[in-house]
């Protein structure tokens, strides 16, 4: 007997036998729902036989038969009513468990988010993406989908989405392109480190989404509920359906603040801040200016995260401010890193270590933040160092900059587009999906092993645009992405270590070393970060002007 738990209230299973009833009783089940019609299989006990054995064991029973492949709306309503009325936990069964899982999914459509339903059933071994439209429609079969259709649909209006839309329109102005994104505001997130360091104003890092959508591109202001790649369809909240010839997926990452106990309740108060949020980055600078003595914690969660250097950038700029105002000797800086190295590309570590020494910062590796008590100003870390027993430590703080854990968005993780870890599954060179050849992905949400930075998206967007246009013309991929990413590490006000690298940590400098040696702190790199990169982002990258981002062509071997 195979039991597949959906949640604490319901488990589904394939056909059960009469002899299974005592085992189910012993496992704590109090009710059974049979969703398999009698006589469907030659060796199948009737529901009356199951019910008789259930009564002997003191279990309640409901018979809600559903013909395979024909789950009706009223069946789901009846299943939901049975779940509410029967004592739980409940076991529901059919031939394989799929009908029972489908009935549950539809019955919960108005009570739970789509991603929670798809995630619970996926974890139990059942793929419910085939009924995603009905779930999005409140568990009812849609009668009017109101489909829209575009040559290219782009999910996500961040750096990657707007850039690839602009690059596509620059190549083929006649393409019908749509961007799907519910946000009103588009943020220049790389600027938030500078906001937290007192260099940029927060409002300079935000523009209205409508002002940035490229001319001729449709903006569908909605959230995505699910994907139907077999039908070339994206399902929106409210069950609207958008069809496509080609799809680009780039919605960015989910910042999982709730994964750290007590964090959400204290963010923006009690000395707890983060440059990973627009509204909190100014609070970082406020805390830095106000701290004259005490302990400052800077945390970094397990990878992957966007802009892997951002947690230590906050530490360096804060340390520099304390160095300049004379408070550094009275501030205990502690870098709490869930990983085991300061930076993943070793060539940049010596320069960074000089600043760790300058600011007298303590490096605490394998320390992962798991809880915060804001009013008490205490943080709890899980410590999992190699060759030692796992433990937890509690650290008091006066100020704490938190980098939150990060995952793919829920609607991506439960979709057919995701790999086993929840990321969009692409070829790391062409950025084309490994299973659906009319889907591409870029930015933070795909599974290529590159750093998740805006600079990476700047290189990826033209690659995706080139390959989509080639596909439209009936050609194979013509451009490849080499894993390029850039992390301007703000080690002090006025100097930056400009880390640029590709797949495998290979150095990928954009400038000759006599202009900028990325392995050393540089004023030229600071000028690039402060003065050049913001206008390049707003006026070039998001406009399809591929400054220093021309796609690398795929080399075809001679015949």
TrEMBL record:
CDD domains attached to this UniProt entry: PTP-bact
Sorted UniProt keywords: FAD, Flavoprotein, Oxidoreductase, Quinone, Transit peptide
Alphabetized GO MF terms: FAD binding; hydrolase activity; quinone binding; sulfide:quinone oxidoreductase activity
A Pfam family recorded for this sequence: Pyr_redox_2
GO biological process, one term: sulfide oxidation, using sulfide:quinone oxidoreductase
Protease is among the record's keywords: no
InterPro entries: BLH_phosphatase-like (IPR005939), FAD/NAD-bd_sf (IPR036188), FAD/NAD-binding_dom (IPR023753), Prot-tyrosine_phosphatase-like (IPR029021), Sulphide_quinone_reductase (IPR015904)
Cofactor requirement: FAD
FAD/NAD(P)-binding domain segment(s): 150-269
Annotated protein name in UniProt: TIGR01244 family phosphatase
Organism: Marivita cryptomonadis
């Amino acid at each position: 007997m195979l039991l597949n738990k959906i949640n604490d209230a319901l488990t589904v299973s394939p056909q059960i036998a009469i002899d299974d009833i005592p085992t189910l009783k012993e496992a704590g089940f109090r009710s059974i729902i049979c969703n398999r019609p009698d006589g469907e299989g030659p060796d199948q006990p009737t529901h009356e036989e199951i019910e008789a054995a259930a009564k002997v064991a003191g279990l309640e029973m409901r018979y809600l038969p559903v013909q395979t492949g024909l789950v009706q709306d009223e069946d789901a309503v009846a299943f939901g009513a049975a779940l509410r009325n029967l004592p739980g936990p409940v076991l529901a069964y059919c031939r394989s468990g799929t009908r029972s899982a489908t009935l549950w999914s539809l019955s919960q459509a108005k009570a739970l988010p789509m991603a929670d339903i798809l995630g619970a059933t996926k974890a139990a071994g059942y793929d419910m993406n085939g009924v995603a439209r009905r779930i999005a429609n409140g568990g009812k079969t849609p009668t009017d989908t109101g489909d829209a259709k575009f040559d290219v649909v782009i999910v996500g209006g961040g750096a990657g989405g707007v850039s690839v839309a602009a690059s596509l329109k620059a190549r083929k102005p006649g393409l019908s392109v749509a961007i799907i994104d519910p946000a009103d505001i588009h943020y220049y997130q790389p600027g938030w480190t500078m906001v937290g360091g007192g260099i940029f104003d927060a409002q300079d890092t935000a523009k209205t989404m409508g002002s940035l959508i490229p001319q001729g591109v449709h903006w569908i202001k909605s959230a995505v509920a699910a994907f139907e790649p077999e039908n070339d369809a994206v399902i929106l909240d409210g069950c609207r359906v958008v069809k496509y010839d080609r799809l680009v997926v780039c919605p960015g990452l989910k910042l999982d603040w709730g994964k750290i106990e007590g964090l959400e309740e204290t963010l923006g108060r009690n000395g707890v801040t983060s440059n990973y949020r627009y509204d909190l980055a100014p609070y970082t600078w406020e805390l830095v200016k106000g701290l004259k003595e005490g302990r400052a914690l800077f945390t970094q969660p397990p990878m992957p995260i966007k802009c892997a250097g951002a947690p230590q950038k906050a530490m360096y700029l804060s340390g520099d401010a304390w160095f300049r105002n004379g408070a550094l000797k009275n501030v205990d800086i502690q870098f709490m890193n869930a990983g085991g190295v300061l930076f993943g590309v070793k060539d940049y570590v010596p320069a960074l270590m000089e600043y760790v020494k300058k600011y007298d910062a303590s490096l605490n590796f394998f320390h992962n933040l798991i809880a915060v008590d804001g009013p008490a100003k205490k943080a709890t870390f899980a410590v999992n160092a190699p060759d030692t027993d796992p433990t937890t430590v509690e650290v008091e703080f006066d100020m704490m900059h938190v980098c939150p854990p990060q995952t793919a968005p829920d609607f991506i993780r439960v979709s057919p587009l995701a790999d086993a870890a929840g990321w969009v599954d692409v070829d790391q060179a062409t950025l084309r999906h490994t299973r659906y050849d009319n889907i591409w992905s870029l930015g933070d949400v795909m599974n290529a092993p590159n750093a998740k930075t805006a600079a990476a998206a700047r290189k990826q967007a033209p690659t995706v645009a080139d390959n989509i246009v080639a596909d439209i013309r009936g050609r194979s991929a013509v451009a490849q992405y080499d894993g390029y990413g850039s992390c301007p590490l703000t080690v002090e006000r006025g100097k930056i270590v400009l880390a640029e690298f590709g797949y495998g940590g290979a150095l990928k400098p954009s400038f000759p070393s006599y202009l900028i040696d990325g392995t050393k702190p540089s004023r030229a790199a600071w000028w690039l970060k402060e003065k050049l990169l913001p206008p390049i982002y707003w006026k070039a990258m998001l406009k399809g002007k591929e400054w220093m981002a021309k796609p690398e062509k795929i080399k075809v071997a001679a015949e």
